[in-house]
Amino acid sequence: MSGENKQGFAEALLEWYDQNARDLPWRRVHTPYAIWISEIMLQQTQVVTVIDYYKRFMARFPDVYRLSEAAEDEVFKCWEGLGYYSRARHMMQAAHVIVSELGGVFPEDRDALLKLPGIGPYTAGAIASIAYNEPVPAVDGNVLRVMARVYADGRDIGNPKNRNFFETLVMAHMPDRSGDFNQALMELGACVCTPKQPDCENCPVKMFCDGYKNGNPTDYPIKLPKAAKSIHDVSVLVLRHMGKIAVVRRPEGGLMSGLWGFPVVMDEDSETAHLNYFESHLGYTVTRTGLGSKAKHIFTHRVWNMQVYYYDFKDPEQGLETVDDPELRWVSKKDMEALAFPTAFKKLFKGIDFFRKGD
Would you state the pLDDT for residue 259? Predict the structure, then answer.
């Protein structure tokens, strides 16, 4: 693409964006904090889902100081349902760094932003360009798709090694309005240059697009197939006592790290395995009292087929105070509303019976 065409590409795209950009709440402000929150939420999540979460989150945590002071459970509860909770955890870590080490002031360039927990090249580029107009790329999946089609490029966009190449393509078109340009590329990919049915006839940059000229835009981008998801049978153990059930905090570093949920035993539905779990992890002697509901939950790389099993104390007089464990709580149905539960477990809520026979 010639230098003149490169300039024309940016001009045509920005003219379209100025007239067609969606009115999204995070576009009404240009503070680095607001942009940061929105960009983290938008990772792996659709815009229509994020809007209400963003509004609630900003009302609850309006600035980096308030976020840095918040308890983990409070933040997780506000995040509940968005999934990928590591994003929220990294945000809290970054907020602590910004407040304690940087005096509450966000770094003003991409390289410094990259040093914060949970901020990668795309997020750093988005904050730096939108908040500070630094001429740096912000290349997400939408931008990768647009540039692969514009250049009819056959590189695998799923390979991180190819990201620098596509960032170079974006920089070749970068105008003075870097923040608007990055947002315009994302907007084009989200609304016009969509994965399966791109609206090429109404695309503002079709005259610059080699994929369109060649008549095969949907041949791009190239992305190798993902590995098949692993499938797991999951025993969900519901221990009841006096209208309450036992919930545990999931181990740090694993799936749904740090969140509250039901005890589970993976890929083993024998009563012996369940009893061993209760005795070795919680110190409880229990007995199985029945089966509950079933549900399936699909994660990014795995599938859980869940079956609820009900358990009660073998000795009904056993008290809840027998175990002093900060990773264990006994909760009522109302108590559960205050905790952040993963979506996988929330699928089972309606079918859970909190009361054993005789309670």
Answer: 86
In a domain, 185, yes or no: yes
pLDDT in tens, 259-269: 889 999 999 88
Element (H, E) at 234: strand 230-241
**H-state helical runs in 133-195:** 141-150, 163-173, 178-191
Q: Which listed residue (39, 80, 134, 187) is catalytic?
A: 39
Q: Are residues 166 and 284 in the same domain?
A: no
Do residues 123 and 26 lie in contact, with contact meaning Cβ atoms separated by under 8 Å? no
The answer on 121 and 240 residing in a single domain is no
The three-state secondary structure class of 286 is: strand
What confidence tier does 324 reach under pLDDT thresholds 50, 70, 90? Answer: low
Query: Which residue type, as a one-letter code, is found at position 331?
Result: V
| Domain containing residue 9: CATH number | 1.10.340.30
**What distance in Å separates the CA atoms of residue 302 and residue 156, rounded to the nearest whole number?**
23
Query: Of 8, 3, 15, whose CA–CA distance to 207 is shortest?
Result: 8
Whether 194 and 235 share a structural domain: no
Identity of the residue numbered 193: C
> Is residue 72 annotated as part of the catalytic site, yes or no?
no
Closest alpha carbon to 185 in 197, 172, 170, 199: 170
Give the residue from 57, 66, 56, 55 showing the smallest Cα distance to 104: 66
Domain with 239, as residue range(s), is 230-351
Q: Which residues contact 220 (CB under 8 A, 6 or more apart)?
A: 145, 148, 149, 152, 153, 154, 211
Cα 22 to Cα 36: distance, rounded to the nearest angstrom: 18
Ramachandran sector of residue 358 (left: φ over 0; alpha: ψ -120 to 50; beta: rest): left
Answer whether residue 32 shows pLDDT above 90: yes
Both 195 and 330 in a single domain? no
* Contacts of 260 by beta carbon, 8 Å cutoff, 6+ apart: 247, 248, 249, 250, 329, 339, 340, 341
- Domain assignment of residue 356, yes or no: no
From 131, 180, 206, 155, select the one nearest 15 (Cα to Cα): 180
Distance separating alpha carbons of residues 262 and 245, to the nearest angstrom: 9
